[in-house]
Design brief:
The complex is a heterodimer of chains A (about 350) and B (about 290). Chain A has about 350 residues and is an alpha+beta fold. Chain A has two domains: about 5-240, 3-Layer(aba) Sandwich (Rossmann fold), CATH 3.40.50.300; about 255-345, OB fold (Dihydrolipoamide Acetyltransferase, E2P) (Beta Barrel). Helices cover about 25% and strands about 30% of the residues of chain A. Chain A contains eight helices and 18 strands. In chain A, the strands form four sheets. In chain A, strands 6-7-8-3-9-10 form a six-stranded mixed sheet, with helices on both faces. Chain A has a five-stranded antiparallel sheet with strand order 13-17-14-15-16, with no helix packed on it. In chain A, helix 5 (about 180-195) links the parallel strand 7 and strand 8 (about 200-205). The radius of gyration of chain A is 24 Å and the shape is elongated. By secondary structure, chain B is mainly alpha-helical. Chain B has one domain: MetI-like fold (Orthogonal Bundle). Helices cover about 75% and strands about 5% of the residues of chain B. In chain B, strands 1-2 form a two-stranded antiparallel ribbon. In chain B, a hairpin with a 5-residue loop joins strand 1 and strand 2. The radius of gyration of chain B is 24 Å and the shape is globular. Classes of the chains: A alpha+beta (about 350), B mainly alpha (about 290).
């Protein structure tokens, strides 16, 4: 029953957590419009979405810090929709860490054990274990104010896992850290999750982070799950233009004659690495456009062009680190049929 | 180096007025009072330059010791009740929506538009035999005869609590409002019931507010004499009344000074003890 085994990770036969049609409104603002979701034991699920999409509210409902207006929450098939946060086998790593400022690292980490009146010897032992797991053993006597952001994060994680909950909720835990530290913590969180065999629900708005860490990704938008699936599936086979753009940064080619056949509400998406841009000549087969921007991003060039025909902006990222193209130049833009992804057009063009 | 010197000079210039003010109006009078408490009074008016310890020995007479005992008792009772009523008031006020917080704040401030002396006379109307309180209680059938509450110890205590309550509510509210409520949620998430989360997280973190509140109510409750005057008649005599009497009627300035010095030492001692005993480190151990 417990998710302790590390190898059982990839098969989620028994649902650990099940959300059924959750809705929630704050005043007149509807935040969740019927979210249904299943998380398996030991699974790493990421809730991916832009700010205000309802991902934090979903997490708070699972933690019991918020009550849904309708819908049900089941943990191991037990209805916990209205049970108190302290009666759930779920712990949270808060976005701002929420370390108790009047307690040192050791007391913070041991808090949930002291609350449950575990004996002192065992507390000491388990605190030491948790601190070793998060590599914070040398900081046991420090106060939270004497720690850096990354260290506070580790303490928050140690505090949340000490009771070995079945499910750990992480609300953008790496949001406040610099890029380098974030990358390192991603790897460590993943290691920790494997070692403990605890299911993680991880919130982020960073698609790269989601793709790197998750077994499964649930893209959430406007209080609804837009698509749920494995990282590869979400990236390779987005079902909607929003997912294609948000997760793969794909070009949504609106008003362009597609090579694939489309239904009325469908549109094509082509990823940057599949867009070919060549200097324009009379013989070119592609669409004519003008280069508008050329910049380095993540070790490679990203070249943007505006298509003359539709005025659509297209980004190509297949140029390596050197390209003869310069802004203002006329180019021919093309792609092959195989790289066209047919998606449902639901994109309102909002900035993510 | 020169820049540093210039900076230091301007820093001194900035704090100098404050030092002068503190020396002239706080330290000066205190030293004057302390010095006077060791002098012999003049038979007719004022003081002589003769030194003595008699003023202090005087205080150990049973009558005066009794006065001190009564004052301390009233101050402790007043502070305890203001804390009991004021802490929850301030704490829950911080949990209200900003609009309601503003309304509560206004309600707390309105009484200050009238002099506190006037408000104490209001309590006379409440407490006097066959006054408002008696009428209500007898109409409700709770009591049969007038209670004759005016000029009793409880009447004074109620007046004190009433007068000092805002000074407990404000600091508690301020510290509760500053508190990060996510911390209470974190405690709940980690398995604490509402009550335990309050005891282990919210209470220790609002302790500074409670402490300020206790300082702000305990100190005045040791010295406030007009409330005892108005609601206690001459039945309740506090150190404050004693000092006033010695100063204004008996004209024994040195004795009044000695009483004041002892009152100050006593007050400081109590607050120091309280602080030692209620340290938040210890509160953490309540779990």
């Amino acid at each position: 029953m417990s998710g302790e085994s590390a190898k059982g990770q990839k098969s989620y036969t028994n649902a650990l957590l099940r959300l059924e049609n959750i809705t929630k409104a704050f005043g007149n603002t509807k935040v969740l419009n019927g979210v249904s979701l299943t998380v398996g034991a030991g699974e790493f699920l990421t809730l991916l979405g832009s700010s205000g999409c309802g991902k934090t509210t979903t997490l708070r409902i699972i933690a019991g810090l918020e009550r849904p207006d309708s819908g049900r929450v089941f943990l191991e098939e037990r209805d916990i929709t209205y049970s108190e946060p302290n009666k759930r086998d779920v712990n949270t790593v808060f976005q701002n860490y929420a370390l108790f400022p009047h307690m040192n690292v050791e007391s913070n980490v041991g808090y949930s054990l002291r609350i449950r009146s575990v004996n002192k010897v065992e507390i000491k032992q388990r605190v030491a274990d948790a601190l070793r797991l998060t590599r914070m053993d040398e900081y046991a006597k420090r106060m939270p104010t004497e720690l850096s952001g990354g260290q506070m994060q580790r303490v928050a994680i140690a505090r949340a896992i000490i009771n070995r909950p079945k499910l750990l909720l992480l609300d953008e835990p790496l949001g406040a850290l610099d890029l380098q530290l974030r990358r390192r913590m991603q790897i460590e969180l993943k290691r920790l999750q494997r070692e403990l065999g605890i299911a993680f629900i991880y919130i982020t708005h960073d698609q790269e982070e989601a793709l790197n860490m998750s077994d499964r990704i649930a893209v959430i938008r406007g209080g609804l799950l837009e698509q749920t699936g494995g990282a590869a599936e979400i990236y390779d086979a987005p079902r909607t233009s929003y997912v294609a753009r948000f997760v793969g940064s794909a070009n949504i080619l609106r008003g362009v004659s597609a090579l694939s056949s489309l239904l009325p509400n469908e549109i094509i998406a082509v990823r940057g690495e599949n867009i070919v841009m060549e200097p324009y000549s009379e013989q070119s087969r592609g669409l004519k456009g003008v280069v508008t921007d050329k910049r380095f991003a993540g070790g490679m060039l990203r070249i943007s062009a505006r298509l003359n025909q539709s005025g659509a902006e297209v980004v190509s990222s297949r140029h390596g680190i050197d390209s003869p193209l310069t802004p203002g130049q006329s180019v021919s833009v093309s792609w092959d049929a195989a790289s066209e992804i047919v998606v449902k057009d639901n994109d309102t063009g909002e900035v993510s | 180096m020169r820049a540093v010197k210039r900076e230091r000079r301007s820093a001194i210039a900035a704090v100098l007025p404050m030092y002068i003010f503190t020396l002239a109006f706080i330290a000066g009078p205190l030293v004057y009072m302390l010095a006077m408490s060791f002098l012999v009074r003049d038979e007719r008016w004022g003081i002589t330059s003769q030194m003595t310890l008699r003023n202090y020995l005087h205080i150990f007479e049973p009558v005066y010791l009794e006065t001190f005992k009564q004052s301390v008792r009233l101050a402790v009772i007043t502070t305890a009740f203001t804390a009991l009523a004021g802490y929850p008031a301030g704490y829950f006020m911080a949990k209200l929506t900003p609009v309601w917080r503003g309304r509560c704040m206004t309600l707390l401030i309105i009484p200050f538009w009238t002099s506190s002396l006037m408000r104490m006379y209001g309590w006379i109307i409440m407490f006097r035999a066959n006054g408002s309180l008696d009428s209500i209680l007898m109409w409700l059938g709770i009591t049969v005869n007038p209670l004759k509450l005016l000029y009793t110890y409880p009447a004074v205590a109620v007046g004190m609590i009433y007068a000092l309550l805002p000074f407990m509510i404000y600091p508690v509210y301020a510290s509760a409002e500053k508190m990060d409520w996510d911390l209470a949620e974190a405690a709940r998430d980690l398995g604490a019931s509402r009550f335990k989360a309050f005891l282990t997280v919210s209470l220790p973190l609002t302790m500074p507010g409670l402490y300020s509140g206790i300082v702000l109510t305990f100190i005045p409750s040791m010295g406030l004499y007009f409330i005892a005057d108005i609601l206690g008649g001459n039945k309740v005599v506090l150190v404050g009344n004693l000092i006033q009497e010695q100063l204004m009627r008996v004209h024994d300035w040195p004795f009044a000074a000695a009483l004041s010095v002892i009152l100050m030492i006593l007050t400081t001692l109590f607050l120091f003890l309280y602080r030692k005993l209620s340290h938040s480190d210890k509160l953490e151990g309540l779990v």
